[in-house]
Amino acid sequence: MEAFRATGGSARLPVGGWPCVLLVAGLYLATAGCRQSPASAPHQAPPTGSEPIETMSPPDSAAAPLPGRLIQPDDLVYRGAFRMPDAPGDTDWEWGGTAMTYYPGGDPEGPADGYPGSLFATGHDQFQQVSEISIPVPLVSPAKNLSELNVARNIQPFHDIRGALVDAATLELPRAGLAYLPAQGAQTSDKLHFCWGEHYQDERVVSHGWCELDLANPRAAGGWYLGNYSNYSTNGYLFDIPAEWAAQYTPGKLLATGRFRDGGWSGQGPTLFAYGPWNEGNPPPPGATLGCTPLLLYTRSDDFDTPTPHTMNGYHHSDEWSGGAWLTAGNAAAVIFVGTKGLGECWYGFANGVRWPDEPPYPPIPDPPNDERGWWSTRFAARILFYDPADLAAVAQQRAPPYHPQPYAYLDVDSYLFNVRSAQQKHRLGAAAYDRANRRLYVLEMRADADRPLAHVWSVSRQPP
After folding, report:
1. Measured between alpha carbons, how far is 421 from 414 in angstroms, rounded to an integer?
2. For the whole model, what pTM was predicted?
């Protein structure tokens, strides 16, 4: 991607792209500046469970793609940022922002300021409780002065919406997703759908559920498995699918869920599955395995049976795709993923360039701040990826394999962020949410306000031709 990178700007990607890794004699060999370690190393032993579809034949009822145009990076107009409020109770926003969804019926008593509705989002990542906040008018601060920004207001304080479904105390480096949907099927009330997981999940566990919008009385239902797929591929983000698109390509499935797990344990790029739990009960029984439709799934890094692994163009094992949304504006659309993109060289070890060997002797752990072992790149960029919904439709209809879609453009957003401290800083972006009626995209910047997330807002200006 180097030749097409536009810092603080956007780029459209050519057809084809650049492979990042090749599988030869069991080793991932570096190309395009991406250096990998052997897949047999201790830090690369992801569990099996995902079943990517390698061959496709068109179904008899394959439908033509819906007409429309693609939303481009230049169609996103930055509106500014706002801050999280002080939170009463036993948790706060510090280290929060891993999940978020927009609720159009929220804050009905709020001012008529052009930003209706509310946001549900998760707080501190070791508690993963959920709060509802208002949406103040975002402001642009050229000097990146937090005191110039408006502050959201508490609507519902933090509560644990999962009940006994997930023991938050046992989660290590949790992942989470939230999505609001109005009542579906036999449901009699609107729901807050959720998924939860953690960094290491060697065995499949229940991951998805739903609850009521009253956070103090959530009446959670679940947890459910998603198909026969690994948790590494399914439980990191969650968003709604436009009803018109779902009716044609994923009937009855209005939710999109997926996850990117560094090291390629989820698949070497973001993943996406469509599902609709209300089709399988109201609610489905605890422990049910929900049907789902793959929309995006690249080759896993532990899949040695695929002669040529399929990756996202420009893929790095150090990438982080932490949120997503399905954007629509008139007859234009795009599926986006937000996160932090690795650029330059890629290695397993430490930020100062020390590589971790596959066998002893192991090097000493560097002093802070270079003591975090993991996947690293020469530098990182906060980025929004754009995918074509027509490519996902081809996968849903089994006219193309799930590794076929590639991003057609990206937008680098570091120039808008308040807390980029170094070129190798990870975890820049968290969750995303979309207000479809008003075309507003909300993206959280992690730890930008005394360890609290900061909400950034874009409007989508694409108009019909």
Report:
1. 11
2. 0.88
- Helix, strand, coil fractions of the chain, as percent rounded to 5: 10, 35, 55
User: Which tokens in the block code for residue 97?
Assistant: 């922002």
CA-CA distance, 223 to 305, in Å (whole number)? 32
- Ordered alpha helix ranges (H), 13-81: none
Report which of 266, 157, 264 is spatially closest to residue 207, judged by C-alpha positions. Answer: 266
pLDDT tens for 421-434 read 999 999 999 999 99
DSSP letters along 179-243, please?
A: EEE---TT-SS-EEEEEEEES--SS----EEEE-S-TTS---EEEEEETT--GGGTSSEEEEPPH
How long is the chain? 465
CB atoms under 10 Å from CB of 347, counted, come to: 23
Q: How far apart are CA 176 and CA 267, in angstroms?
A: 18
34 DSSP assignment: B
Taking only the tens place, the pLDDT of each residue in 77-132 is: 999 999 999 987 678 999 999 999 999 999 998 999 999 999 999 999 888 899 99
Alpha carbon separation from 194 to 177, 212, 255, 271, 307 (Å, rounded): 5, 11, 10, 17, 36
CA distance 286 to 161: 16
C-alpha Rg value of the chain to the nearest Å: 21
Question: What token pair was written down for 457?
Answer: 């807002």
Identity of the amino acid at 107: D
Phi and psi at 439, nearest 5°, equal: 60, 50
Element (H, E) at 392: helix 389-396
Q: Exposure of 69 by Cβ count < 10 A (0-12 exposed, 13-18 middle, 19+ buried)?
A: middle
How far, in Å, CA of 332 to CA of 439, rounded? 11
